[in-house]
Amino acid sequence: MKNIITQIARILVGVLFIISGLIKLNDPMGFSFKLEEYFNANVLNVEFLIPAALLIACLVVIFEVVLGVMLLIGFKTKFTVWSLLAMIVFFTFLTFYSAYFNKVTDCGCFGDALKLTPWESFTKDIILLGLILILFFNQKYILPLFNKTAVNLVVFATYTLCFFMAYYVLQHLPFIDFRAYKVGTNIKEGMAIPEGAPKSEYQMVFIYKVNGVDTEISYDDVMAGNVPENAEFVDRKDKLIKEGYVPPIHDFSIEKDGNNYIEEVLNEPKVMLLISYDLNKSKDKGMKLLEEFHQKAAEKDYLVIGMTASDQETIAVFKKNFGLTFDYYFCDATTLKTIERANPSIVVLEKGTIVQKVHFNDIEKVNLK
């Protein structure tokens, strides 16, 4: 009976680690953005790790896939099980911390393919922890499926393929786009809220400083006079009680000089968006290609605009350094990182519908009609 339970746990854990790892390996840049959220001062306060987020993301997801394979084929059982246990203990702490303190709203466990709330992520990790503990206490039942040479070759091949996949998607784009801005998406339709969709519910609360501490007091208590005598009013805010329908595309804007040109741009028949969420983090190799490409697209009657979250001073510096003659419009950095993974990158629109997305390394593949 113990052997059967162990083999079931072995298959479940191995397959889940492989699937989770491959989904993130398809988009390591996206996972690195999630790690940056965790490294932030408001969460784990290890900001010195942010510059290495992409490297860490690649190593973690490759190791995750390889561990799943190692478990299934029975490679170095003791090392594999201990590694699985260490990893799940760390991620269980991370998801609990995130859920309890409401720090990160999506753990990124399955990338953009499957969104889990912090508490759902924590529950998933608790179940995995239980399964891995079964493996930990029953290691003697985890035997190799093949001879030593074959097992070693499988692990080596897995490492090699994973490294190749990570390199390829970073130099181009993810094989599969799970995001709201995938090719074929109409942005205006993605922003629409269906009729009758549930609306968010808010509660008005007042913040008073009570004995030196900011304290929330409900509207009803304030109206009833249930406010401590020594309390000092600080602020009033609307607290989210129940979140309503949130459209797949939100926080998307095309702003310039205080105006939002989203309607005008999305109604254009041919638009080329040159996206750099942060110009200071853009690749020089890609930036050097943009002006020549801009001129070619303009000849084909495309409206060509840049999109960034950088300030006007930075925009001016980059336009001068790279001889850029197109205008940059503002959009939230998180939104731009969601749209594309390369910096810079190219997105082609036809009346608001995304028809092509290209990494700057593949700029010659853009279909200029």
Automatic annotation (TrEMBL):
InterPro entries hit by this protein: Methylamine_util_MauE (IPR009908)
Keywords in alphabetical order: Membrane, Transmembrane, Transmembrane helix
Intracellular or extracellular location(s): Membrane
Regions crossing the membrane: 7-25, 48-72, 79-101, 121-138, 150-170
Domain (Methylamine utilisation protein MauE) ranges: 3-137
Membrane topology field: Multi-pass membrane protein
Superkingdom: Bacteria
Short name of one Pfam family: MauE
GO biological process, one term: methylamine metabolic process
Cellular component GO terms held in the UniProt record: membrane
NCBIfam families: BT_3928_fam
Name of the protein in question: DoxX family protein
